[in-house]
Amino acid sequence: MSDSKVVFVTGVSSGIGRAAAEQFARRGCTVFGSVRDPRKAQPIAGVELVEMDVRDEGSVQRAVQGIVGSAGRIDILVNNAGGTMVGAIEETSIAEAHALFDTNVFGALRTTQAVLPFMRQQREGRIVNVSSVLGFLPAPYMGLYSASKHALEGMSETLDHEVRNFGIRVVLVEPSFTKTQLDQNAPAAASRIPAYEQDRRVVAQAISKSVQKAPAPDTVAATIVEAALGNWQMRRTPKGEASLLSKLRRFLPAGPVDSSLRRSFGLS
Fold this sequence. Notes:
Helix content is 49%, strand content 12%. A 7-stranded parallel beta sheet has the order 3-2-1-4-5-6-7, with helices on both faces. Helix 2 packs parallel to helix 4. The chain is globular. The relative contact order is 0.14.
């Protein structure tokens, strides 16, 4: 795929989405980026900001139709908008879990369903879904976030089989911790069960240390751009920890992977 493409990136207010939009623009793409409130969003050179909330069907449809009306097509969709949460599964309310899935899974689904008719008509397209290493690994005290990314991965792999006859391919990008406000300010489940307090605190400290040492979002953004413009590859992990974790999960027996994961989260 050439660089002269119309690209739509969701969630460009900050972090990975903003960095990806900037890099697409520098590559000569026509770039649209979604924000929930354009009045509060900082402008991005070469990127047209579009008001959209991935949790609202009407908002998604208006945004996608507006982009197609302006640019005539959408060649690449990057489903980046997402949220996270820290808390034991028992502590996480159904309402909190539903809100997380509404953004991470159903938000991507809404936007994908809105874009697909245009991609099918033009017989070409690439959908890049930003997942996480927690889409193929468990994550103590981030269980619902991990579950949402597992769901996104299953949906993405299935979708790729359904749409490839139309010239459309789907790609997963699976970063590890990244130095963004999303990871640094992860909300906690409202409920607190004392039995989980010690381990939850240990895990939260381990997550904080991992984020502090994590690469800037530019590294993940570069992987997203390559996933969108380069040769198709179902899964792409940024260089470094994410690629290492992918190899460990694939080639090591379950026991050592389990032990290594618990050590990384500070659990005995």
